[in-house]
Amino acid sequence: MEKQIAQRAYEKKGIFGAASEKKDYNCLGTYLPILGDGMVFGVVGFLFPKPKWISEESLQFLLFMTSQLSFALERYRI
Question: What predicted TM-score, i.e. pTM, was given to this entire model?
Fold first, then answer.
């Protein structure tokens, strides 16, 4: 199931998993796309030993970290 949810995050360019609006509680993680320069570089998954809801504050931090990763990848490509 985790692979399918990560694939959905990649294809739909959105957050999927336990912290998403759809709240896929059966999965063990939250998946965020790495977006930049009009494309998807990949997906970052944050996995936990059991299904866990991520607070809004934690989700904002993960989004910040993912955006920093995107900036680094964009600079690497240049």
Answer: 0.81
The residue-averaged pLDDT of 8-23 equals 81
3 residue type, one letter: K
The residues, any chain, with a CB within 8 Å of residue 66's CB and separated by 6 or more, are: 32, 33, 34, 44
Sign of the alpha-carbon torsion through 9, 45, 61, 42 = negative
Nearest of 46, 50, 49, 40 to residue 20 by alpha carbon: 46
Instruction: Burial-class residue 57 by CB neighbours within 10 Å (0-12, 13-18, 19+).
Output: exposed
- The candidate with the shortest Cα–Cα distance to 24, out of 48, 45, 5, 44, is 5
pLDDT in tens, 33-65: 999 888 899 999 988 887 777 788 988 999 999
Residue the block writes with tokens 């998954």: 45
